[in-house]
Amino acid sequence: MLHIAVFGSSKWSCLMKDILEKEYSEMLNQDCGETVAVDTFVVLGSPQSDNEISVEEFGRRYAAQELAAIVIPKEYYMQQNELVFALLRAGVDVQDIYDGIRLSEETRNRPEAVACLITPMLADSYLPYLEFHVADHCNLNCKYCTHYSPLVDQPVFTEYEKFAADLRQLKKYIADIGVIRILGGEPLLSPELGRYIELARELYPVSIVTVVTNGLLIDRMEPSLIECMRKNMAFFHISYYPPLQDKVQEIQKFLYEQKIPYTITPMITEFNKTQTLTPQADEDFFYSCFQASCTCLHEGRVAPCYAPFTTKYFNQAFGQELPMGEGVDLYDETLNTAMLKAQLLIPMERCRYCVSGNACPWEIVGKHSALEDWVE
Question: Alpha helix (H) ranges present in the chain?
Fold first, then answer.
């Protein structure tokens, strides 16, 4: 009998356990005479019940060969990358991390679902998360912005046709994505935002599609964009900065009346200054960096975060030579799904120039900011 664990503590985890111990065990028994038992649930943070263990405890029991593998239900798309990095830090072989099938009735009851109840994570043509810019500039210009938007001295929009070709190229290797986040800069500055929403929904029909915005332009949306968001089941994620305070209730009322769903953060009053000019030797920083889970698509490449693609603005502004342009080339003829996903688990050279940083009060930075406004 194979003793394994399932990630999470929600109904999805319990349903995954049931599927593994019944349907998957039956298939495995017919194939090689083995069966499966789900011994426990693994959670990020502290366990809250007797049937939960921490990632660190899973690592210990895995090393002792008490647990052979872990299965992650796809419904945990926003936590999967963080979990995988924690498992790697705990000594778990990536080959023993599996993706579970989507458990919603819409996908679970398809005939082909039975054949792929679980898949080794690297072999699974699934990403839990993808983001991309539609504009590099912004209407707010936050000091310490890690996308360097205040350093973009003129409007810079993504070229739609080129991006559409890149996303279709990605589709050859990644058939399913948990959540797609469209951002910038400020995405509502893009006159073609609706086209990107439609493209994301066309290629990834079951993904969650969200537009990340500071909210200041929401009540100026064109009717065509409002209809596009409704039709394509897209929603807003509003980053609540102090300038929105006087109109936040008005914006929420507008979205309610327009029947556009949204989430909103608590007011953001601090930013972390994470940039350094001195390369760091600690590669473990990558596996604890939340931005390393923000898989980004830009100009035919995919990287663990957006830094390789926006660092050019920092270099141009201050005459620096930080690494840029890294990432997986989607047009490499030797590429396959496993290679792409494996590369996203490896620190980049650019990662050596990021640090945890110190919290600094949020403020708007002028167009003629100094190097010390950005460097820790």
Answer: 11-19, 25-32, 55-63, 77-89, 105-108, 160-171, 193-203, 223-231, 248-258, 284-288, 307-318, 337-343
